[in-house]
Amino acid sequence: MTETLPPLPELRSDCSACAALCCMALAFDAGDDFAIDKPAGLPCPNLDEAMGCRLYGRLEAEGFAGCARYECAGAGQRVSQELFEGADWRTDPALAAPMIEAFAAMRKVHEGLELLVAAGRLDLPEPLERERRAILAAYLPESWSLEALRAFVSGGAPTRLAAFLPKLRDWV
Ligand code: SF4
Q1: For residue 24, what are the contacts with CB-CB under 8 A and spacing of at least 6?
Q2: Against a cut of 0.90, is the pTM above it?
Q3: In this structure, which residue's CA is closest to atom 1 in ligand 1?
Q4: What tens digit of pLDDT does each residue of 28-68 get?
Q5: Is the minimum distance from the CB of 53 to ligand 1 under 6 angstroms?
Q6: From the CA of 121, how far away is ligand 1's center (Å)?
């Protein structure tokens, strides 16, 4: 019998439930996609007091097509809500560093989940489907903490996924 896996988290961003992590944690370079340089870990100057974007709805026109295209795959709201219970780094600046670290790790988790979900839509032979589900289980623990995320990114699951993906070549 196939073991039932825990439910998947949302794999699309919900900015309304996120502490604007991409607008603070990520760096960007001025060019075609961004109108300005911004270092990692500093809030974008376009971020308003309510953690919204002043350029919302006209990002491309203002030279921020890279922001319009960016998709965290649901990692941002998950870090904000599940790990930090809705707290934000602006109210409590001491949270910025752990939130940045958790966001980077959770993006890896969600990128892996997206790949594993996409692989699940292929008509895989039974041994490969079993392997996919075993790796998926490692990406779906009951809960995450910063310590668990740290252990995850340096642990075996991402390596197993990296070794698994090339095996799908004949079914893509
Ligand atoms: S331009 Fe808007 S969406 Fe892009 S990083 Fe700045 S605040 Fe965020």
Answers
A1: 41, 42, 43, 44, 47, 89, 96, 99, 100
A2: yes
A3: 46
A4: 999 999 999 999 999 999 999 999 999 999 999 999 999 99
A5: yes
A6: 34
